[in-house]
Structure formats: structure tokens, C-alpha cells
Input
Amino acid sequence: MTDAPTQRKSRLQLLLVALVFLGPLAVASWLYFQGAAPSGRTNHGVLLEPIINVSDQLSAFDDGNQQGRTWVLLYRNPGICDDACRKALYTSRQARLMLGNEMDRIQRVFLRGESPPDTVFLADEHPGLITIEDSALDELLDNKRPAELPASGYYLIDPLGNLVMYFRPDLDPADTVDDIKHLLRLSRIG
Output
């Protein structure tokens, strides 16, 4: 038979082991129900929900995307391509370059307004940039953009044609790249 002090010591050890495992759970639950839950947001862009398929909505969009092979970083500027537009195109180019080995998975597209851009500037400064004018795509993107955000901005479209994210035109390119790298890492397509 065991004596009382040994039995008390064994129970105390069992209680300490249980406390080590259950203590953090109890504290976390208490904090959660007291309203101290983390607001956990890691993306810098805005996730567009519900997700719509641009290719299904607009068959003309498939032409520039090489369906199923690349993600599209689309810069939308409905007005004249002024200095802010040129800076945004430069930012999209730099963001793509910052992706390093992953940059081949991204195709840059410039959705312009009715006024034609400077083609010499685009050819010299932005080789590989696809420039399109598509009023139906422009209207679709304008309807999907959160109303409080600027009309011009960047949209990320996955290789299946799904409109995924919106980025403000004044967002730091490093923040944009963080979001894109995260999506590319998780993606099994394109």
C-alpha cells in the first residue's frame, strides 16, 4: 500500500501535468470571450468577394491571358495616362521584377481609357506590357471595386480567369509583392 504523502505527491504531479496542457487553452478561451480575439489580417490588398470569373463574363479577355498559364496583374486607368498613371505602370513593372524567379508567372496588362497612351513610352519603358481598351471589362472591374477605393488601381486575376484581389494605386509595391508571393506559394495553378 502507498502511504498518504506519496499519494498526495502523485496527485500533485498529475494536476501539474494537466495544468501545463489545459492552462493555455483556458487562458486563450477566456481572452477570446473577453473580446481580445486577434483581428488577424495579413493581406494588404482587398479580396474581392464573391469571386467572379472574368473569362466567363467577357470572352474577349481570354485572348491576352494565355488561359491557364499566367496570373494577370492588371492596372486599370479609365482616364488619360498622366504622370500618376506612368508612375503606376512603373510600380507594376517593379512589383513584377521583385517577384524574382516567380515573375514569369505574372503577366502585366494595362486597361486604358478611351484616350490612347503614348505608344513610344510604353514600348521603351514597358516591354511585354499588354495594353487593351475594353469598356465591358472596365465596367465589370468598376462594379467589383469597393466603392470607397479609387477607380484606378491594380487587379489580380488568377490563371483560371477569377478576379481575386484589388490593390490601391498608392500601395507600396513591397506590400503588393507580399500578397502576390503568398498567393503564388499557395496556388497549384499557373
User: Anything to note?
Assistant: The longest strand covers residues 46-53. DSSP finds seven helices and six strands in the chain.
